[in-house]
Amino acid sequence: MGILRQHAEDEFKEELAALKKEDKGHKPTNWELSPQAVVDYLIGKKLKNGFEVIPKYIGDRRLMEIAVATLTTDRALLLYGIPGTGKSWVSEHLSAAITGNSTLLIQGTAGTSEEAIRYGWNYAKLLSEGPTESALVETPLMDAMKNGKIARVEELTRISADVQDNLITILSEKLLPIPELNMEVQAQRGFNVIATANNKDKGVNELSSALKRRFNTVILPTPKTAKEEVNIVKTRVEKMVSNIELPAELPTLKEIQRIVTIFRELRSGVTEDGKTKIKSPSSTMSSAEAIAVVNNGLALAAHFGDGKLSSQDIASGLVGAVVKDPIQDKVVWEDYLETVVKPREGWKDIYRACKEVRV
Fold it and tell me: What pLDDT digit, counting tens, does each position of 132-154 carry?
């Protein structure tokens, strides 16, 4: 059976090996690549031997340099931004390139407990032996501390404030006390934390000022240009089609451009030419949502159509992405269809298809 989604270090092991072979830069303790080579892996580069390292992050190189430089210091890294700007994607690839292991992950949710961050217990052993080292259950964070690796904490602001603050001692003192055993775990060189957070989630728990001071924050913005965003969507969609072997033709550049244009206009509140102001919906019109719309359309085309992405295949996913609030967003969407999409040359098909979808 094929793996649906490989870890970054497995999927791109040839690229990492090629970079490592050519890498002449200084490598911090327990790093697989130098900071310069890590950024090359993220941004993409053609190596001297002709090998092409594809971009993982399409955007400002300087942002990636700041992120990587942070991880060479004793400060943790917080990747911040609205949903869909690639925070988790960048976090995974940073970990893969730096330590060769992106799996030391704590997924933040409203139910994430203190034990998920610090350590837990094997309760069968705890009852029979009492608190011993063999009864201790290591978390990914403890593993990273012991081995000088990078731990990832996804959606940090989804975790309750009292649980978040368990990170303060770890990040400031570089140790994890285990009072039950009268011992502590001291972090080895190379240890650090990459956390992600967004400010659009209704379940956000703001970070305390004490915890914020332990992080260097890098804000990942939405793509600056339509061309950049089209490239992101195109690249991720092609990867998805390949991974799941979807029996559909890749979408034309025209279709991707139209979807990206719709998302950018609704996100910015103004049309592409800057002439018409429009209302923005409550939903997050991110690149990730645009990718999901294309993927959903391709699945419809593959299994219930002729394998070619059509406006009808796009319409249902598009309406679902925009209209999250059935009252407010419905008005915004219908107004956008009538004032922008309907009169736009060459867009009649997408207008008709979207009008046919019941909201």
Answer: 999 999 999 999 999 999 999 99
* Contact by Cβ (8 Å): 192, 147: no
Of 3, 5, 207, 244, nearest to 102 by C-alpha is 5
Cβ count within 10 A of residue 84: 20
Q: 0.85 exceeded by the pTM?
A: yes
Residue whose entry in the numeric block shows the structure tokens 């910015």: 268
Mean pLDDT on 63-67: 97
What confidence category does residue 205 fall into, taking pLDDT thresholds of 50, 70 and 90? confident
Residue type, 202: K
Quote helix, strand, coil % in the chain, to nearest 5.
Answer: 50, 10, 40
Question: Which run of H or E residues covers position 257?
Answer: helix 253-268
pLDDT at 1 over 60: no
Rounded-to-integer distance, Cα 71 and Cα 36, Å: 12
Q: 3-class secondary structure for 181-218?
A: HCEEEECCCCCEEEEEECCCCCCCCCCCHHHHCCEEEE
Q: Interhelix angle for 61-71 vs 87-99, to 10°?
A: 50
Tokens 């379940």 found at = 203
pLDDT tens, position by position, 175-197: 999 999 999 999 999 999 999 99
Which residues are CB-neighbours of 267 under 8 A, at least 6 positions away?
222, 280, 285, 286
Rounded CA-CA distance 290/297 in Å is 11
Question: Could you write out the three-class secondary structure of 302-336?
Answer: HHHCCCCCCHHHHHHHHHHHHCCCCCHHHHHHHHH
| DSSP tag of 339 | I
- Mean pLDDT for the stretch of residues 44-49: 92
8 A C-beta contact, residue 299 and residue 247 = no
**Vertex 113 angle, CA 110 and 118, to 5°:** 140
Contacts of residue 5, Cβ cutoff 8 Å, sequence gap at least 6: 243
